[in-house]
Design brief:
Layout (H helix, E strand, L loop, with lengths): L3 E8 L5 H5 L4 E6 L2 E4 L15 E8 L11 H5 L19 H28 L11 H7 L3 H13 L5 H14 L11 H11 L5 H14 L3
Parallel strand pairs: 1-4
Antiparallel strand pairs: 1-2, 2-3
Length: about 220
Amino acid sequence: MRTELEIIEKKVPDELIMKSRMEKAKILEKVGQCWNDVNESPGGASHIQPDNKITIYKLNIQEKPRSEIANWNEVVNDYSNIIIFNRGNETEMMCQNENIRDAIDDVCEIISQWYSHFLYHYNVILYEDNRVNTIKELMNRSVDLNTRGRIERVCEFLGGITFNELIAIGCYKLRRNERVHKMKWSMQDNALNRLDIASIKMPNDCKQAINKCIKIVYRT
């Protein structure tokens, strides 16, 4: 499969001509909805193959306030233009994909905290030989009907999670294999917001289960 690459060559003001001659073209590789900086990778442009599709943009950089552009609609409708703008929003420090990944990390942390509640309640009245230390160990024992019955009772107590939902959140966490170490939030609403962002790439039953986990982890 061909890889689409966008090459951007910057034209700078006269006083920076000497500096610009020492710089290489900005090379971006389009992967899905993301743009990867080829210049940052080992080997840089040497990884571009002869049959890769290349598009070269030569930009005449003009930085000015939006209000000074009289023919704004004409500029926007010209497909040959590339427009980069700055909202001046200092609160958003991550792009959408980074925000989704960060939210997924947060959701995995919520699952881990719910697991801690679950293991405590599962082990609380058992003899030491029958106790488990991890969810994986417990799921391996779930083929036993008595063990599965106890799992289902504890799940029902901790938010009404079904056995299938327990499997769903376990698979979700294993696939991501995320390990995050964040301070516990004081607000349940914040956790629910992170779930809404992360759930873009999550099965519906998994989202429902994690919603129940949040209510247990952040209950007061």
